[in-house]
Amino acid sequence: MVASELPRADAPPRNLPGLTLHVPEPKFRPGDAVDFVGIEVPPAGAARRPDTAAPAKDFPELAYTLVRVLDEEGRAVGAWDPKLSPDTLRRMLRNMALLRAFDERMFRAQRQGKTSFYMKATGEEAVAIAAAQALADDDMCFPSYRQQGLLIARGYPLVEMMNQIYSNRGDKLQGKQLPIMYSARDHGFFSISGNLTTQYPQAVGWAMASAAKGDTRIAAAWCGEGSTAEGDFHSACTFAAVYRAPVIFNVVNNQWAISSFSGFAGAEATTFAARAIGYGIAGLRVDGNDALAVYAATLWAAERARTNQGPTLIEHFTYRAEGHSTSDDPTQYRSAGEPNAWPLGDPIARLKQHLITLGEWDEARHAAQDRELAEYVRAEQKEAEKNGILGHGLHQPLDSLFDGVFEEMPWHLREQQQQMIAEEEASGRPWARK
Amino acid sequence: MTMNEDEPTTRMNMIQAINSALDICMARDPDVLVMGEDVGYFGGVFRATAGLQAKYGKTRVFDTPITETGIIGVAIGMGAYGLRPVPEIQFADYIYPALDQLVSEAARLRYRSAGEFISPMTVRSPFGGGIFGGQTHSQSPEGIFTHVSGIKTVIPATPYDAKGLLIAAIEDNDPVLFFEPKRIYNGPFNGYWDRPSENWSKHPAGEVPTGYYKVPLGKAAVVREGEALTILCYGTMVHVCTAVVAEQGVDAEIIDLRTLVPLDIEAIEESVKKTGRCMIVHEATRTSGFGAELSALVQERCFYHLEAPIERVTGYDTPYPHSLEWAYFPGPVRIGQALKKIMKDA
């Protein structure tokens, strides 16, 4: 026996049972009946709305409740009601419906083999659309891959989005990026990365630059609840708190990170909005399927940012109603009953009900709008497909593969470019050119 | 070089030269911004940013939280806004937390956005050993970054080059990693740790113009012309090689690469074809080091001119040790033996 194995005279007695490791498990798996009674849904209008100049430490409870405006009857109630005009509400409804129609169409295009990949935002339409309408058009957005609603709400042409999805001749990104990883600088939309939450510190840097320059624009970033576990998220929160950066952090808690439920990001222990408290950042937990609550929270956070009150972290409590992407089949890991049982409903249906309750909308107009939007998306798709659908070597000159690695092409890339062209010529493939 | 012959010059060590480059860039361009751990009021642990905060204010020169991920991520966002940030990573050994932001973001932003967004930042970071820094203050990670497409890697070996290369790096519209060999901040270290060290006051490249000039990226310098063999090196090793060559009386051509990506392949090819022998020296660990790339390039392009196998002299494939750092360091003995070996049949 070596010395280290001898019992220490002063060691406490070890008469406890062995340790156990807790591995989180979602409540429902395929085949299970779904019952979301465990999710606490406070009544609409119950949360107080602090003054935008109030210090973050004055309202910690807002990180644990749900800010809700639309009640079960479709009325807007409470201090967070943004009191929007019927026109603004109709525009919001239309944008959300357009986003859903776009998603349906592009999902089908992928299934038809017209592109490699697509991601829908079904059930989360309010998160991006309402936020975009509450922000100024020149505020800078640092989205994750499920905020195509920002582009739609800002009037970015659908044809441009489709060109990117098809990597076709019209694609402004020259076929260099995976479908849906848009970049639209002139629409205040930062180049999307496939790596998670890297955009968070970048948004803070943009916001710090804006503040350092005495600009008036602010930044907003989005990530999923799953990727709040990334170090970048915490680096960003620290930086934003330290410099009081004019930035809004949006955590889209849609319950699922591919097949991992929110428990693997820490949801069993606390809320994601509560992450803000440790950093001294304002934290709000919002009903993400309530477009008015998302709008009001974003407007409140934007006002804080614009008046040098610093960052706000908003958790949007929502539900990813469909698969993670076209490469995912959610029936393999979660109950098919979940989307319909979701206690916060569907964001489009809820806003539609609100407008009907106000006497500003009706079912017939809604159905007509859906038909019109579907037709519009189809027409845009036809236009985009004139520029081609995804196909290797069809749309971009081969030598463009080397463009944009550096501003000026160094010798080693020029050599490899020549090698590639020679290889294509030797291949005899019909599309080998230049 | 874009230097005017009539420009006034003064003696500078490498720290002063780097400080001067930052000062000049900040004065010329209000979008240049300096940030990093301890760089603000204090002026940096090596004093490279001393006086800049007092001169340019706290919104252009400031301390940061200790998160390298955050520092580089924030610098990318600033670049997207239109600024030209010059973040400092206090030691190159601390750069790894920022790897994702450097590799997947800064280096790829121009490409993935088809030029809509660029990342015109220059990351300054002291690197290399020989200061009793142990394994976390001595590493040479340049080979990790030369492997990444979309990022430039620059390493100066003199005060003159440090200033001119840094100005060129800051004005460059692509991300640049600027590794500063900290062992030669104060003088051209010849590898003899047990002898008195020199400072820059007697070295010709310690005479530095006080004003603006650039040393272009991607251009090597022939430090010593010679016929017997070519030595490819950079950073501290330039001075160690120079000392060994002088001692042995070998007519070596010593090339200071200065920029690893993009590499000055013409200078390398021209020299090796002339001398017929090539020795590569770096302080970084051997396996998959930048020397392997250099060796492959020379073999591919100069094979029929070679009269001896290419020699690589490097640090060992171990962590950088503390007490045994001079056993790790590729010093005059290791270089001298390699020199004898490659010249054996000459």
UniProtKB/TrEMBL annotation, chain A:
Name the record gives this protein: 2-oxoisovalerate dehydrogenase subunit alpha
Residue ranges, annotated region (Disordered): 1-20
Record carries keyword Oxidoreductase: yes
Domain Dehydrogenase E1 component, first and last residues per copy: 95-389
Protein EC: 1.2.4.4
Keywords associated with the record: Oxidoreductase, Thiamine pyrophosphate
The keyword Oxidoreductase is annotated on this UniProt entry: yes
Pfam families: E1_dh (PF00676), OxoDH_E1alpha_N (PF12573)
CDD domains assigned to the protein according to its UniProt record, in alphabetical order: TPP_E1_PDC_ADC_BCADC
InterPro entries from the UniProt entry: Alpha-ketoacid_DH_E1_comp, DH_E1, Oxoisoval_DH_suAlpha_N_dom, THDP-binding
SUPFAM superfamilies (alphabetical): Thiamin diphosphate-binding fold (THDP-binding)
Catalysis: reaction(s): N(6)-[(R)-lipoyl]-L-lysyl-[protein] + 3-methyl-2-oxobutanoate + H(+) = N(6)-[(R)-S(8)-2-methylpropanoyldihydrolipoyl]-L-lysyl-[protein] + CO2
Cofactor(s) it depends on: thiamine diphosphate
Function statement: The branched-chain alpha-keto dehydrogenase complex catalyzes the overall conversion of alpha-keto acids to acyl-CoA and CO(2). It contains multiple copies of three enzymatic components: branched-chain alpha-keto acid decarboxylase (E1), lipoamide acyltransferase (E2) and lipoamide dehydrogenase (E3).
UniProt family annotation: Belongs to the BCKDHA family.
